[in-house]
Amino acid sequence: MGKGHIVIIGCGNPLMGNDGAGLAAMRLFEGRYPDVDCVDGGTGGLGLIPLMEGYERAIIVDAMVGSGGRIGDVFIFKTPPSWDRPVCALQDIGVGEAVVMAKELGYIEDAIVIGIDVGEVRAFSREIDPAVEEGIRAAWEYILEILQDWRNPPSERPPRSRPGGDPCP
Predict the structure, then answer these.
(1) Which residues, 6 or more positions from 165, have their beta carbon under 8 angstroms from its beta carbon?
(2) d(CA 124, CA 69)
(3) pTM for the model
(4) Mapping DSSP to helix (H, G, I), strand (E, B) and coil, where does residue 112 land?
């Protein structure tokens, strides 16, 4: 681990069905990019804080329940979710609180939390519902966009052209 590196932390329990969504999304990136580490964050909580140490940026992916959305909906939190919103995890301390603490301790400069609404969590199941699988694919696309922005900020990219030669905003 070193300054400038990015870490993707997947949270959840793969033996609890849909709760494994964050881990499944993180595993889609394992070994794909030399400057991106993928880490199993377990079931989250305070244990997330040391996993962010030494990285400049982190993406944390976890299952969400009680979002008010549909199963498979993906929520992007560029600032940690507030304490009065549903936590993005099923443990005592939520992902948002762990990110706030890691920032205050100086462990991480920037973090984005991605929550996948999983509806319900079934005990002792390895099965992930098809709607949650769709959410995992959507989270993968969002993570790709975030990685592109972090590696090559919009101000450093050459302007894209529309048919006709006008640059895109």
Answers:
(1) none
(2) 25
(3) 0.82
(4) strand
Residue 58 half-sphere exposure toward CB, CA atoms < 13 A: 34
Degrees (nearest 5) of the Cα angle 2, 141, 33?
Answer: 30
Domain 6-156, classified CATH 3.20.20.140, yes or no: no
- Stated as kind and residue range, the H or E segment containing 6 is strand 6-10
Q: Rounded to whole angstroms, what are the CA distances from 34 to 1, 37, 151?
A: 11, 8, 12
Q: pLDDT per residue over 65-102, tens digit each?
A: 888 789 999 999 988 765 555 545 444 577 888 898 89
Nearest Cα neighbor of 35 from 155, 156, 151, 140 is 151
The answer to whether residues 9 and 51 touch, using CB atoms and an 8 Å cutoff, is yes
